[in-house]
Amino acid sequence: MKLLFDNDIGANPLSGRTIAVIGFGSQGSAHAENLRDSGLSVTVGLRAGSSSREKAFEAGFQVLGIEEAAAQADVVALLIPDEEHGETYRRHLAGSLAEGKTLLVAHGFSLHFGQVEPHPGLDVVMVAPKGPGHQVRSEFRRGRGLVMLVAVEQNFSGHARDTALQYASAIGGGRGGIFESTFRDECETDLFGEQAVICGGLTHLIAAGFETLVDAGYPPEAAYFECVHEVKLTADLIHLRGISGMRDVISNTARFGDVTRGPRVIGPEVREEMKKILSEIRSGKFAEEWMEENRSGRRVFSSLLDRQRDKPIEQVGARIRKLIHPPGRESQGIE
Ligand SMILES: NC(=O)c1ccc[n+]([C@@H]2O[C@H](COP(=O)([O-])OP(=O)(O)OC[C@H]3O[C@@H](n4cnc5c(N)ncnc54)[C@H](OP(=O)(O)O)[C@@H]3O)[C@@H](O)[C@H]2O)c1
Question: Apex CA 155: angle with CA 177 and CA 157, to 5°?
């Protein structure tokens, strides 16, 4: 495996070219600001009546309609929610992206699952930061960067890889490390990671642990400290030192509990379910379910989110976080 850094990346094919960043949300705002700070020419493309217009304008960007921005640009970074890519591409980009231009996304979902069917005369690339937009920006401002996955889906010009690498470098990937991948691998592993581990798996593990302690009569505050608060400390250790490295600095008792009880928590049933989740991702079943949920007004999605928000763990957490992070002490290494 090879990670690429700024020194590995050659001459700048983006220099003198215009980049249109479509969308000014989490990734869009961070990419636009980092690209501009890297000396590149950036315009922001937004839909009519966009609520992001003022923010982009105040940040000093020229704000155009999506079609206009795309028509003037050499590279179009489509940084709006994945479920909106298909419609936006068909309505606003298909006719404005002339042959030889680059369509860039930050996640492979819409291309891999056929929501966007790009014109064959385009370069189509992905630069996927492994973290949310505010960290793409904050790391860049500190002179650092996030790890990024880069991939090429279409290489009409013969320079698609260079364009993607330069773009990644310009938003900080060349400092954090760039890993070359494919749309399929990025998309399927990203969906699996967020469903089974870092979002779905972790949040439900935390809540199940908290509820087990509270149901057994322990104070919710104690349950919160043990099952929620310490997650960050453990995650930071794993991030820095790996799983075994984390185990090196915990007590013998914690380590023994980890290796004897952990496999019971994540037993064969959980592993079987993980395989099912992965096969739903790979077959396109998850993508179809998500797109259908959007078409039908997101009723299931909204009610599941509301149910999670109303759980006691959220109220206890809000109280505790207010005590731990009072105004003026919010940061504590957390962004
Ligand atoms: N967020 C992350 O942590 C993360 C990490 C890695 C990769 N990504 C990828 O980055 C891409 C963008 O994600 P994001 O989280 O940055 O999105 P986001 O913050 O939800 O994007 C919001 C922006 O998209 C615009 N937008 C929403 N719907 C639109 C539509 N139908 N037509 C035109 N503009 C629309 C919004 O404009 P309005 O104000 O007009 O609504 C706003 O400017 C996705 O492909 C995602 O998978 C995200």
Answer: 110
Ligand 1 pocket at CB < 6 A: 23-28, 46-47, 50-52, 79-82, 84, 88, 105-107, 128-129, 132-133
- Quick one: average pLDDT of 219-246? 97
DSSP 71-101: HH-SEEEE-S-GGGHHHHIIIIITTT--TT-
Helical (H) or strand (E) element with 149: strand 148-154
Distance 162 CA to ligand 1 centre (A): 25
CA distance 71 to 68: 5
Q: What are the tens digits of pLDDT across the range 200-225?
A: 999 999 999 999 999 999 999 999 99
Q: What is the DSSP letter of 332?
A: T
The CATH superfamily holding the domain 3-181 is: NAD(P)-binding Rossmann-like Domain (3.40.50.720)
> Nearest CA to 170 among 140, 150, 139?
140
Asked if 107 is an active-site residue, the reply is yes
| Residue of higher predicted confidence among 335 and 103 | 103
For a mutational test of ligand 1's pocket, the pick from 79, 124, 294, i.e. the residue with the most ligand atoms closer than 8 A to its C-beta, is 79
Between strands 123-129 and 148-154, the pairing is antiparallel
Please tell me the total number of residues recorded for the chain in this structure: 335
Report residue 185 as tokens: 């691998």
Contact predicate 24/55, CB 8 Å: yes
What residue segments make up the domains of the chain, in order of their start?
Answer: 3-181, 191-324
